[in-house]
Design a protein that fits this description.
The structure holds two protein chains of two kinds.
Chain A lengths: L4 E3 L2 E4 L5 E6 L6 E8 L3 E9 L2 E5 L6 E5 L5 E5 L8 E8 L8 E2 L3 E5 L1
Parallel strand pairs in A: 2-11
Antiparallel strand pairs in A: 1-3, 3-8, 4-5, 4-9, 5-6, 7-8, 9-10, 9-11
Chain B lengths: L3 E4 L2 E5 L4 E7 L3 E9 L5 E6 L3 E5 L2 E6 L4 E6 L8 E9 L6 E2 L3 E6 L1
Parallel strand pairs in B: 2-11
Antiparallel strand pairs in B: 1-3, 3-8, 4-5, 4-9, 6-7, 7-8, 9-10, 9-11
The chains are: A mainly beta, B mainly beta.
Chain lengths: ~110, ~110
């Protein structure tokens, strides 16, 4: 069974631009979560989606948004990019919402210049 | 929110040595996972262990939920074990994984 896939793997953007990252969960998994990893803040939760509904959102500004499609694929969008948004963005999938094991994708490394 | 503390923050070993990594958490959890982050950034699942003991080859883990800690044991360490090990927990009342700061393990030949 294929793992979690994320595209693109690397991205360079300029301040003020916007970016969309994509995540395809493991087949059969219906819950997708997003995390941001930076050297200073560690791994922080962004949002969780299940059945196309956002179930939870972390402490990030409104510039960070996401959505989930009917096939469970998810996208996250960051508008008006700032230098501090440079990070590794990780997507995780699990069977359903709740205390299920989460499996992570390889991540998208975003650099904002 | 729940607090997760990992110790030690850094660990340097000689190949063949054994080690124990610890994860303390501040509230009840219904999910605890151990991950190894590879050099390219991907989090590799080691254990899903909200309670009890599990073993997988040279690695084993124990979670004592009532005392709010988990231990990851690495025996006969190899250079390929190097990297960052993360503990992540999910509060019983929550829906997100909260990660510790990680333990940076270096295994020298």
């Amino acid at each position: 069974k294929a793992g979690v896939t994320q595209t693109p793997r690397y991205l360079i953007k300029t301040r003020g631009q916007q970016v969309t990252l994509s995540c395809s969960p493991i087949s059969g998994h219906r819950s997708v979560s997003w995390y941001q990893q930076t050297p200073g803040q560690g791994l922080q939760f962004l949002f969780e989606y299940f059945s196309e509904t956002q179930r939870n959102k972390g402490n990030f500004p409104g510039r960070f948004s996401g959505r989930q499609f009917s096939n469970s694929r998810s996208e996250m969008n960051v508008s008006t990019l700032e230098l501090g948004d440079s990070a590794l963005y990780l997507c995780a999938s699990s069977l359903a919402a709740g205390a299920y094991e989460q499996y992570f994708g390889p991540g998208t490394r975003l650099t904002v210049t | 929110g729940i607090q997760v503390e990992q110790s030690p923050p850094d660990l340097i070993l000689q190949e063949g040595a054994n080690s124990t990594l610890r994860c303390n958490f501040s509230d009840s959890v219904n999910n605890l996972q151990w991950f190894h982050q590879n050099p390219w950034g991907q989090l590799i699942n080691l254990f899903y262990i909200p309670s009890g003991t599990k073993q997988n080859g040279r690695l084993s883990a124990t979670t004592v939920a009532t005392e709010r800690y988990s231990l990851l044991y690495i025996s006969s360490s190899q250079t390929t074990d190097s990297g960052v090990y993360f503990c992540a927990v999910r509060e019983t009342s929550g829906s997100r994984l909260t990660f510790g700061e990680g333990t940076q393990l270096t295994v020298n030949p």
